[in-house]
Design goal:
This protein is of the alpha+beta class. The chain contains four helices and three strands. The chain folds into two domains: 87 residues, no CATH class; 37 residues, no CATH class. A hairpin with a 4-residue loop joins strand 2 and strand 3. The termini are far apart.
């Protein structure tokens, strides 16, 4: 026979701690306050999130094997620049369109990158001729993949 007992005191203690976590460290209390330890932990989480985003997220950075130190540094620079740009895009999208939590039609970073991935530019020169000094003049039309047109005199 199975008997189920409910320990109300243990349940209440568990519910009070729900969502809490404990950070342990070997740093002496004289070196760092509890708040500094917490802030360091949060910073570490952000760094780990960024590396995960670079490797497996939208950026999909893959290992690149180069021999020269300058090329390795250049590759790391490009990866970090891509991460910085993606974080800035996220911030601006959130600022202008909100989040999917507040607005189900908000534009996410993935949506924006997908749209940018299909963007292209075509130049079409119409009525090209030369002026009195031999310079080419005419009207050029630029078309985007989304049908937008801009015209300017060249």
């Amino acid at each position: 026979m199975l008997v189920l007992e409910r320990h109300e005191a243990a349940l209440e203690t568990s519910l009070e701690l729900a969502g809490c976590y404990v950070v342990t460290t070997d740093v002496l209390p004289a070196s760092m306050s509890a708040q500094e330890v917490h802030d360091s932990y949060v910073s570490l989480q952000k760094v780990e999130r960024d590396f995960r985003a670079m490797k497996t997220g939208l950026l999909e950075v893959r290992p690149l094997f180069v021999r020269k130190q300058s090329r390795t540094r250049g590759h790391v620079f490009c990866c970090m620049l891509a991460l910085k740009l993606s974080r800035e895009m996220e911030r601006r999208l959130r600022e202008h369109f909100g989040t999917t939590d507040s607005n189900p039609h908000a534009i996410t970073l993935r949506d924006a990158l997908t749209s940018l991935g299909s963007l292209c530019l075509s130049l079409l020169t119409v009525n090209s001729c030369s002026d009195s000094e031999g310079r080419s003049v005419g009207i050029e039309t630029m078309k985007t993949a989304h049908g937008g047109d801009w015209m300017y005199n060249g």
